Amino acid sequence: MKNKNGFVQDPSGIFHFQWRVRGTTVMDAAIAAITDHPGGPAWFWFNGYPAPIYLDDSPQKLVRRWGEYQKACAEPDGLRTLLEKLGSPKRK
User: Fold this and answer.
1) Nearest one of 2, 3, 66, 56 to 30, comparing CA atoms
2) Mean pLDDT across the stretch 39-53?
């Protein structure tokens, strides 16, 4: 199912935000994702790279985290390391 704000909910109940607007910046997409977040677990996707969206996020925090995930995807085992941190009780 897809809602009007760019979020798609997968069968497990997790929302995925993919804003497909030409010429948009990652900050524009992050602002839209934070503003229109439906609540619950969600992932932000931009240029093919994901980052989790947390309920207390600001657009700046989300863009910073997305940048970390983007860099991690370029490193061997980098994305796996970041995903393992998601299960950790402490997060930045």
Assistant:
1) 66
2) 90
Q: What pTM, to 2 d.p., does this model score?
A: 0.78
Indicate the Cα dihedral angle 14, 50, 67, 20, nearest 10°.
-100
- What is residue 91's predicted lDDT score, i.e. its pLDDT? 47
- Cα distance between residue 23 and residue 79, in whole Å: 27
Domain span holding position 61: 7-86
Is 69 domain-assigned?
A: yes
- What pLDDT band is residue 92 in, cutting at 50, 70 and 90? very low
Taking the C-alpha atoms of residue 74 and residue 38, their distance in angstroms, rounded to an integer, is 30
Number of domains, the chain: 1
Q: What is the tens place of the pLDDT at every residue in 22-38? A: 778 999 999 999 998 88
Q: How many whole angstroms separate alpha carbon 53 and alpha carbon 20?
A: 18
